[in-house]
Fold:
Amino acid sequence: MMFIRRIATTAALLVIVTSCEREDRRLNSQQPAAPTQMVPEVRLQPGPTLISDTTEGPYDDNAYGTTEGQVLFEQMNCSGCHANGGGGMGPPLMDDEWVYGSKPDQIFASIAEGRPNGMPTWKYRLNNQQIWQLVAYVRSLSGLTPKGARPSREDHMMVKPAPAQTPNAKPKNSGLPGSAQRP
Amino acid sequence: MERRHTGASSQLVRRLLGILACAGLTAAAACKPEVSQSLGTTSAQTGAAPAGDTGHLAADDGQWVRPAKDYASTRFSALSEINTANVKNLRLVATFSTGVLRGHEAAPIVVGSTMYVITPFPNYVYALDLTKPGLSVKWTFNPKPELAAQGVACCDLVNRGLVYDAGKLFFNTLDDHTIALDAESGKVVWDTKVGDINLGETMTMAPLVVKGHVLVGDSGGEMGVRGWLKGLDENSGKVVWTAYHTGPDKDVLIGPGFKAFYAKDQGKDLGVSSWPPDMWKIGGGTMWGWISYDSTADLIFYGSGNPGPWNPEVRPGDNKWASTLFARRPETGEAVWAYQLSQHDLHDYDGVNEQILVDLPIGGVTRKVLIRPERNGYIYVMDRATGEVISANAYGFVNASTGVDLKTGALQYNPEKETKVGKVVREICPAAPGMKDWQPTAYSPRTGMLYIPHQNLCMDEEGVSANYIAGTPYVGMNVKMYPGPGGNRGEFEAWNPVTGKQVWAIKEDLPVWSGTVVTAGDVAFYGTMDGWFKAVDARNGAVLWQFKTGSGIIGQPITYKGPDGHQYVAVLSGVGGWSGAIVAGGLDARDSSAALGMVNAMRDLPSKTTKGGMLYVFGL
Structure:
């Protein structure tokens, strides 16, 4: 019994030590900057591939930042259009289809600049930190961020599995905006 | 007059008789020469049609100039070439691809030998020549609406139809333009911007043209807009009047001529005092449904949408004039009476459904009534001159309320089903889209029955905080819908409005989200969300014929007489709308709250139908 308790304590300590990044509230740190260069929306490049995508946003591995993103997702009415990830007026965010790209920089651009088929621009309403927090939460919805940083419960009526339980959706840039059909 | 039986006076008597007969007709509106005027033809006999002769409900049953067919909104055609005996021989005559893959809710219309079709966003208009085999295109019009409008349209990108009058076509675009086209050439006559997408306003309803005024309203009850109906001059497009559905009486166009039947709807500036301070400015009460017109009384009738946000706890009060039925003058917009259907709405029960104007024998006298199969689950039969509720019977399973108090006119809520913040209230019936959403009913004067396409859904709800940010959703509710009692999500129901009872019903697995039409051949047509177009016997509901179209049907079927003198039936196939958003918008069913909770009830739809956009025409 004693032995088991010791193992549990060691495990707990291990978790605490390794999850500093996950738990860091970064209250005194500087705001993360916006992506430094224009973010390509497309993968197609004439000739040899020159772009290298960013793979991680500043809050992707940070539970506090992701949860702040979750709060903003409701407060800014993102959930009004994208529901709790399944979509409605706007496209779903928990599946593997990305109209304008799944990379952190691309999602940052989608939120900040808006997109032509109905996504408003938010750069005049949110600061960079808030947008990056939203990026982390949006990516957590399809399991693209480290599991430990993803919210493990919903605050409201159970309408879907929590992001921590959502499998990585392996993004495909194949989504079509709603109005893709033109005569 | 009695003493001198001169030729002139007997002429007068005959005329009076004609008018009386006209008033006695089930659809008074159809007696007026409005259709003949608008078609540029004369059909002088319409006023003299003998009472009970349903053959003269409209000036010319060969055409179909507005989605509701006539001003009384009967959606009844006197054509009978296609009837219960031969409808089994109905065959596909022509198809036409609209080039759009969103929910097709519109009715095609037929004027002379041309059919006009409007698509969902981006709202293309096609003129199709019925004299040529295979529906050749006469002209196409592309209004090129703002792409961003898609981001503020609550429930798919639908359009419910265009309307013809006096040589012009009138329709609304999703980005808030009302446009008049020359019906012959397809050229723009005028184009008036009447709303703003940055405030969350879109437009999806089919206009109605009455006495030179194009009546249009806005959508956006989920976006914190302030709802209105406007009257535009038919020739210039100039906005003649605007009637808001919240705010002070002068904005609602309530003046000295206003007289509400019930005490609950009487008082000064109720559109302000029945809200917390200033919340009326973002209180919803939009108008995206149907308008009817009684030419004898010179009144238009229509209802306003849900109050915003859905979360009712943040807006104590009756929230007037959301979810309210109005009677107004078509030329000034002046309100004559109003009746709030769902006071302090708890469950998104918009009041925008169709009203059918008929004269019914009730309690031994003929009464001029208005019938509304309402979203809150009751069929209201009302005196259309005064706004008195004669009866309000449930036409499906309702537990959100216990009935309508006919003395006070108030809907009696069930306190157990009242939505609360921080509490999940389960098994609320009907669900947010109501017992019946926008999909319009038909009425046959031959059978005396209403034919009601509707759904059977219940829901769980949890109130959450709602933040108003202009141009974004303002809902404040987590919703999860599922099938109602019996497990069938839809029903096509025949109802006798005099007895207030169901006559027969066809249970459908999916919500019946299409419109319907009924004919003098005693055949009623409707479509299912998995694509079946069905003809049923109007007297007993027997399915006489069905055809599987390419995509789910949520459009409004019509019937008309082609240039060859034969009867045809037309319908648009193309799934979508709120109930079909999971297919049209490619939503993820793992989230039960997607599409405002509708996706949970429709998670199997993608396995039953696919996107489409096709006009189908059938004939014998």
Q: What stands out?
A: Confidence is low (pLDDT under 50) at residues 1-9, 16-58 of chain B. Residues 7-24 of chain B form the longest helix (18 residues). The first strand of chain B starts at residue 76 and ends at 77.
